[in-house]
């Protein structure tokens, strides 16, 4: 899928207007290049909008391994679509192969691609789990995200250190209590 071109000039104009609206002088030395910097930042932060995260899961390997594959503590950051402020955390992902495995770095790339777009944590968690189920056809998938949302920690209720935890369980991780308990214990270690 071809990436949409980010309209840097439009972002720059919008940022200049925001600076004016809050009573700042967008031409003063410290702010003069801020609109350009913000445009480049948004292009980077939202680079996953038109990228297909499934491309990272195209190459698989036939393997008779039928135990859990767990990758935990994967750092991620994304932008909350409600306030356009970041939330930052760690992702834990597990899957139970059903005849094929994927390179471990590909799991992190899926998270990175899905994180590089405006998000809410609940959707991001679900998107990761559903994509792995769809593309790998495993016996099950478990995804847990733990993140601190700056839209809650630096504004509004202002409760720094608060963490939001979301989970998405599919297949055997949802239907088998023993498997669910085991994967959650791995995530806590």
The strand line-up of the biggest sheet is 5-2-3-6-7
Radius of gyration: 20 Å
What's the number of helices?
7
Q: Give the amount of beta strand, in percent.
A: 25-35%
Question: How would you summarize the topology of this molecule?
Answer:
Elements: H1 8-21, H2 34-45, E1 60-62, E2 69-80, E3 86-96, E4 100-102, H3 104-115, E5 118-119, H4 121-136, E6 140-149, H5 150-153, E7 164-171, H6 172-175, H7 177-188
Parallel strand pairs: 2-5
Antiparallel strand pairs: 1-4, 2-3, 3-6, 6-7
Explained architecture:
There is one protein chain. The chain has 189 residues and is an alpha+beta fold. The chain is 39% helix and 26% strand. It has helices spanning 8-21, 34-45, 104-115, 121-136, 150-153, 172-175, 177-188; strands spanning 60-62, 69-80, 86-96, 100-102, 118-119, 140-149, 164-171. The strands form two sheets. The protein has a five-stranded mixed sheet with strand order 5-2-3-6-7, with helices on both faces. The protein is elongated, with a radius of gyration of 20 Å. The mean pLDDT is 96.
């Amino acid at each position: 899928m071809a990436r949409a071109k980010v309209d840097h000039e439009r972002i720059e104009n919008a940022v200049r207007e925001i600076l004016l609206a809050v009573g700042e002088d967008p031409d003063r030395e410290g702010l003069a290049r801020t609109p350009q910097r913000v445009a480049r930042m948004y292009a980077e932060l939202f680079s996953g909008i038109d990228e297909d995260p499934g491309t990272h899961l195209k190459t698989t390997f036939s393997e008779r391994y039928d135990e859990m594959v767990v990758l935990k503590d994967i750092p991620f950051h994304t932008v909350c679509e409600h306030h356009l402020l970041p939330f930052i955390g760690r992702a834990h992902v597990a899957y139970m192969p059903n005849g094929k495995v994927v390179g471990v770095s590909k799991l992190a790339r899926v998270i990175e691609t899905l994180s590089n777009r405006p998000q809410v944590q609940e959707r991001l968690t679900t998107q990761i789990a559903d994509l792995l189920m769809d593309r790998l056809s495993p016996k099950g998938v478990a995804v847990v995200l733990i993140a601190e949302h700056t839209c809650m920690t630096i504004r509004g209720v202002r409760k720094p250190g608060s963490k939001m935890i979301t989970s998405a369980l599919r297949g055997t991780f949802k239907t088998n209590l023993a498997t669910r308990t085991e994967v959650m214990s791995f995530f806590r270690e």
